[in-house]
Amino acid sequence: MNAPDRTHDPERRAWLPSAQAETDFPIQNLPFGIFSRGGEAPRGGVAIGDHVLDLRAGLDAGLLSGAAAEAAAGPSLNPLMALGRDAARALRHQLSDLLAEGSPVQGAAAALLVPMAEAQMHLPSRIANFSDFMVSREHSWRLGALKDVLAPLPPAFDHLPVAYHSRASSVRTSGEAVRRPNGQWMRKDGLYFGPTEALDYELELAIWLGGAENPIGTPVPMSRAPDRLFGYGLLNDWSARDVQRWEMPPLGPFLAKSLSTTVSPWVVTADAMIPFAIAAARRAEGVAAAPPHLDSDANRRAGGLSIALEAFLLTPRMRAEGAEPARITATDFATMSWTPAQMVTHHGSNGCNLLPGDLLGSGTCSGPTDGSEACLAEILLRGPVTLPNGETRRFLEDGDEVIFRGRAHAPGAVSIGFGECRAEILPAVPWPA
């Protein structure tokens, strides 16, 4: 399952010129998504260069066939996700051959392409469940030290990937604005309710689950966890830090997190990520190995992923001046303390039934160096953000736009991207009279 094949060949080229240039979506990627155009019903598509290949049109034209193509062509990817990685791999092979230079049906296939500029993107799946993890030791350590410098990590951090259940109904796709939430917290002058004054981003990896649902009460061991990893994207777990500090002690995050979660619209399949698998991050000095049920030789050898992740900020003034977004975070998923497979196995270890189309967030992907902090709360430990035009930020202001980008990279492989994950902050709604 994890061996590279012809679809990963760095010499393979698409006949579409925009897929031959520097792009997130070369022929080695071929991520799935749901799009619509001109008021038509949403349907499945595949990103290639600066176009979307319409899967429904490909079926109607007889250029695609099989259960996987039918499952991917509808208004959500849940049916394809439910078929699992083998089915998605077979469809990926069809698509790669269709789009490769020398394809005998290039002329007919060109008629299936829709310019991305004309495509409206939708959520990839109907999300029944969204669980958010905390797998960056550095993120946990930096913010935990504010509460207890002698014991900054949660006691369980090195023994399991800590997580909480978040709000599936407020997950939104890239491009949809985020409304500043009202909330309650304690100020120095007393209890306050109103628009948050500490809105933050969290740069995370989105992990989309696939495969058959495990019956409730039946765990997902490490040997089967990779079968449940359908694909990946980018995720912004927006956080109201003042609200979070006030509500956290009893039970954990609630209204500080459920205001909105933004995901990139394209699902980069687990098979497309095969060239970018790396050894799981080494355990910190003095930290024991993972518990046996969260450990495997395969995970130690190739459970990690090499993905460069970046966060950019575009303020209203920068937009008016025609300035480019300013990069404020550069990190890599390779340094995370727990792998996607370990997240899946831990989530299902109590017999929780994981559904195709479920979403996992990796948690804030902060790295060990200055500049790799993946949220403003951590950056502020070094001081406010100073932007190239002289503006400063402690937390996000109305009109600010946060943009995430990611690139999977490995020596000898064609780098692939995830598309942007972006959203602008709108002012809070006045509290109803």
Automatic annotation (TrEMBL):
Its cofactor is Ca(2+); Mg(2+). It comes from the Bacteria. Pathway: Amino-acid degradation; L-phenylalanine degradation; acetoacetate and fumarate from L-phenylalanine: step 6/6. Its EC number is 3.7.1.2. Keywords: Calcium, Hydrolase, Magnesium, Metal-binding, Phenylalanine catabolism, Tyrosine catabolism. Pfam families: FAA_hydrolase, FAA_hydrolase_N. Residues 28-124 form the Fumarylacetoacetase N-terminal domain. Residues 159-424 form the Fumarylacetoacetase-like C-terminal domain. GO terms for molecular function: fumarylacetoacetase activity. The keyword S-adenosyl-L-methionine does not apply. This is fumarylacetoacetase. The lineage of its organism: Bacteria, Pseudomonadati, Pseudomonadota, Alphaproteobacteria, Acetobacterales.
